[in-house]
Protein 1
Amino acid sequence: MRALGRRGRRGAAAPAADVAEDRWIEVDGLHKVYRPRRSEPTRALSDIALTVRRGEFVSVVGPSGCGKTTLLKILGGIVPRSEGTVRVAGRDVTGPLPEVGMVFQAATLLPWRTVVQNVMVPVEVQRLDTRVYRERAQKLLSLVGLDGFEGKYPHELSGGMQQRAGICRALVHDPAVLLMDEPFGALDALTREHMNVELLRIWRDSGQTVVFVTHSIPEAVFLSDRVVVLSPRPGRIAEIVGIDLPRPRALSVMTSDRAGAHVERIRAHFDADDIETTPAAGS
């Protein structure tokens, strides 16, 4: 597959020129407290400090309700922080940034639009050059194996194909960072494994920086350079585990003793019912 080169975006702000490559994402002293009008405040995140290198793949795991999705939404500018510093590509995050693409748990494709029309939504929203980005959309669809499906509608695609289209939509405007919130959680086990392999190929060819939220420890180990382990609510960083498995990775790597050791190290932070205990991919 042909790699997709980075290109500048017409009409969209470029990442700050002076941002360090090893601090492409920077979070310091992050706290998040939800304050509902009719109930007590809820502390979702407490004193999060994290840096992510440009081009790195980082996963976030933790028990349900620990603030994983909240952290992702704060990085994406969808949810405001209560305290602390959050910067992406050298820019303070005070709202959605054109430098950020997001993939959600469901593909959320517009049913009345074709696949390529769905992929082009961010281009239209940001008022970019449709002729330039239509070509990029076609290349992305080819990259994920959706050649020939450009004119299909979402109901004509499988769940895995819809998620591939959703990834293309998040990548089409060439964001500096890709945020993914359990994008494969609703897929069957075989499709999920296939999508993990596809995602690594897309990441390798596109050069994006990825922050990936998942309940699955084996999935996090298979995909990541590092895994951020959050504690039960309020979410704190319990440990950041470096994954030293060789790249490129095939599913068979998950049967290795080294992969198993990483899985068990992360799982030791949680009770058996706190987090998904699906067998490691390839086992």
Protein 2
Amino acid sequence: MLKLHDLSKVFGSQTAVKNFNYNINLDAHEKSCIALLGPNGAGKTTTLKMLTGLIKPTSGTIVSDQMNGDLRNYIGYLPQYPSYYDWMSANEFLFYVGELSGLNKNILKTRISEVLHSVGLKDVGRKRIGNYSGGMKQRLGIAQAIIHKPKLLILDEPVSALDPIGRREVMDLLNKLKKETTIIYSTHVLHDAEEISDEILIMNKGEIIETGSLKSLKLKYQKPIIYIQSDNKIGNWINELSYIKEVKRESDNSVTITIEDEPESRTRLLEDLIRNNIEISKFVVGESTLEEMFFKVVQ
């Protein structure tokens, strides 16, 4: 267990992180993926940099009863904007990084081959990094972060700058890696967090404002929603129905409604639509998304 206790960071008069408390499970049999969510300026990058040892906290502690000495020996890190020597090949870059990590030269060659295969770059290991696509560079960044088999992999916005193809490549890789090591990563892409994360931490203005497993947060925040599209106008009468929690008007002819979580509510809604002579062209039942939950929590 890596324990973060009252972690705070102040820059001048600005408090970037305030009283951050969280325990990260590094158990070999219980690997997980933790998503750190929050708007710009929430303190996500500062938190991750304190975890990696790149900056010192103003107050608070980061301790582990299992990892001795410098915690950086047990951590792999990919910054939001990684930089490379473009004239190097991936093989050369990983050898360089491996030596900095203290790995034995005799085992580096084998380890580099393993890591490049793991991130899908084995066939281009001799190619110059300057000729890599954005997705390939990001996968190489993950390769350098796992070269020394860290217990904790920390990724700062690993997919934010990628096109859809590059994002898909990295997300598939993270899904595979979370079976081997604990991952904590920051992201603005809420759909990605919903896809691969086991735990969610939501930050705003430097503080954790919500945390829990994805399942528990869904139970807490997800509400039944119904999208209605009509061939004629839907009047304001729909706002007055007692069993409706929220009405979001998409247009004069369409609305998205949050209702009480009861089967009777759907039946009552259909009856009221018919009673008000609404000609229904679409009636789609679903649930609110993680993105909608996020906006409710940070507002």
Protein 3
Amino acid sequence: MENEAIAATPTADQTPWYAVRLFFTRYKAVSEWLKTQEMEFFVPMHYVDVEKNGRVKHILKPVVSNLVFIKKTRPQKTISSLLDEAPFRMRVITKSRENRQWSEISAAEMREFQTMCNPEIELRKYLSESEAKMKVGAPVLVKYGPLKGLSGKLVRSNKKYYLLKEVSGLGVMLKVSRWCCVPMEG
């Protein structure tokens, strides 16, 4: 499977990412603006069934309409001034209310998160950051199967096991067999 290769292949690019909160829901406008600024970005998408004129269409929509991830391809000051000059209001998610440092997402974590957000994968659930933090589970590495190489927390929901990956602003859970996972050595 294509995702297995993505998750297991180490890459030389170690550039971190930032989660950016938007204060409106026009992700297409933001995407276009980020393209004009030559910024690399990622918007988690999923398929939704929408009825229009009596027909159901299967369309791709953002998971969270007010969240986009941008790659730190420029110095933080430059990115900050770009976002301040943007034609719409947005803010980089910080570590906490008290600690105003921007919360960085490592390149490896982001690659795994992007793999888990693939809209073609079924049996996936998205959670808010607070819901994801409340989930109890053990840190694991998937050793076998199509998710081989991914790491996260093994959590149980509705009598099924899921691999949970958290990043700033969002969590994603993929159905996984617990027998394919091994505990991570801490």
